[in-house]
Each structure stands twice: as C-alpha cells, then as structure tokens.
Amino acid sequence: MLNEREIESCYLGQFIPVHYHHNMLMDHNRMHSFKSAIFHAVKPGAKVLELGGGTGVLSFFAAQQADKVYCVEFNPDMVREARRFLAMNENGHKVEVVHADAFDYLPPEPVDIVICEMIHVGMLREKQVEVIEAFKRRYLARFGGPLPVFLPEAVIMAVQPLQAEYDFEGFHAPIIQFQPTNVVYPGTVELAQPGVYSILDFSQPVDSLIAWEGQFLVEKAGSLNALRFITKNVLSIIEERGTTIDWLNHYMTLPLARAIEVQPGDIVQVSFAYRAGGSIPSLEASIRTEVVAKYEEQVAQRAAEAVFA
After folding, report:
1. CB contact set of 101 (below 8 Å; sequence gap of 6+)
2. CB burial class (10 A; 0-12, 13-18, 19+) of residue 120?
C-alpha cells in the first residue's frame, strides 16, 4: 500500500507516465542545454549523484567524464527503463541506478555534482526545492562540507501581464496554457515587460515560500486577462567566460478571474504567493491584480502640480 508521500507523488509529477519521459528525450532545447551544462560541470574522475533520474539520460551525459554516477529514481517503471537504456550506451556501466526515494537517499560517498531535474514552471508541482534542501541537511550531517555543486545552479523566475486569446473556433475557454518559448502567438499581446519575482540560488539556503508584489508600466492598450510565468534555469555558470548555460521552461499562461482594461502609461500592481512544489491552483487563487494609477489621472495630476508650482 502506498504511503502518504507516495500518494502525493502520483499527483506531483514524480510518477508521471513513462511516455512523458520519452517526450523529454525528443525536446532538443532541453537535451542540448543539459548536455552542454553537464559536460562543462562534470570533470574527469568526478563522482555524481542524480536525484530523479527518469530515463537516465542526464546520468549518461555525466558518465562520459565521471568515474561514478548514482542515478536515483523512485518510479519502478522508470528504474527498469533507465537500466535498459544505460545498458545500451557507452559508459552506461558507470551509472548505478538506485531504486530509492530522493527525499531520503544519500550516496555511500561524497559527490562533486548533484543533478536534480525536478523542474516545473515557477517551481510548481515537482519537489525540487524540498528535495535539494533536505539533501543538503542530510549530506552535511553525514559528510560535512563543502556541499556539492548543484545542477541547475540557480533559477530565475519572471511574470508578465498579457492579453491572451481564449477563443477556440468560437468556443471561449480560459485555460492554463503551456507554450514553447520560440513561437510567436498572434492572439497574445504583451502588455508590459516581464518582471523578475524570484531568484533561487541552490548553493544557498532556499525558502520554499515564494511571495511577490510588484508594479508594471503598461505599454500597450488591451484587456489584461492573463499572466505569463517564465522560468529560466541557470544550469551551469562558466566563470572563466562570465557566461551561463541556460534552459527555459515552456511559458505557463494563467487566466485571471477578472479581466482589466488598460491603456499605455497605466500602472498595474500584481501580487501572489505560493510554495515551491505546490499546486497550480494554489498560485491561481493567490493572484491579485489592479490598476493603481491611470495614465490620464497621472497627466492631470502633473498638470495641476505644474500650475501650483
């Protein structure tokens, strides 16, 4: 019988179907970015741990230079898949696929790199933050410092006000949309520039509570009826070049409960709060948007101030 955590995992991405992992293998941007970052971060002779290994592909990348890779996977179907695939690939013998819960597992020896790709837009649904923070505590208690390098090293999250298209052949349906980042969407109007609302640095303690309140200067007229959430994963920092290897999740566009008509020059205030690993509805329920300054009112106020100056 499944325990409470295992039941929750079925809903939070850790027991996603096998074919979903297969689709990730066909995502060129994801695969190329992770391969580049792992090849940069993993030095010859390194020891590597992957938490949530899926098909084992990221552990395979690491094994091309590492001496040893521990690939931890909780889903028994994926454990079988990873072992099958790794047996077909060069240096797959360096990878030990461990059937265990990433919340509890510790490697038998210190490691240099920890790969954890439990990544969802906005750090929602999947438990990456909780898994990494729990791992840090266990690792320090067992081995002392320093901590390994984590991959991704950091996550930058932003939000953007939109006018989104919710007409589907005449059928109006305000739905959550996940969209590739390299596609132009004719029905979408970007009403303001994106604003960064959180930066998570995994080399430091990370708070699972993500709360933000900020303002946007509206650049285009439209109906503010959605927010686009943008998640940029800083997979590896190349210090010698002052650059990073990044991977962008698909955009996540959430419809608002109430649309707001806006004009260029208006100031819109947005706030929300949620916990990393929480549900999308928990974020949706917390969103608040309002126009705090209309452009016409700002012009009138400045004119009045000029008269009495």
Report:
1. 5, 74
2. buried
The pLDDT tens digits for 164-183 are 999 999 999 999 999 999 88
* Strands (E) located in 88-221: 95-99, 113-116, 149-151, 154-163, 167-168, 171-172, 177-179, 189-190, 195-201, 209-217
Cis omega (within 30 of 0) for bond into 44: no
User: pLDDT tens-digit profile of 249-297?
Assistant: 999 999 999 999 999 999 999 999 999 999 999 999 999 999 999 876 6
Residue 58: in which H helix or E strand, if any? helix 57-63
Model's pTM, two decimal places? 0.90
Handedness of CA 233, 154, 208, 74 (dihedral sign): positive
**Residues whose CB falls within 8 Å of the CB of residue 159, separated by 6 or more in sequence, listed in order:** 194, 195, 197, 212, 227, 228, 229, 230, 270, 272
Angle between helices 18-25 and 76-88 (to 10 degrees): 40
Q: How many whole angstroms separate alpha carbon 267 and alpha carbon 265?
A: 7
> In the chain, what are the domains?
4-117 (3.40.50.150), 154-298 (2.70.160.11)
Contact yes or no for 73/46 (Cβ under 8 A): no
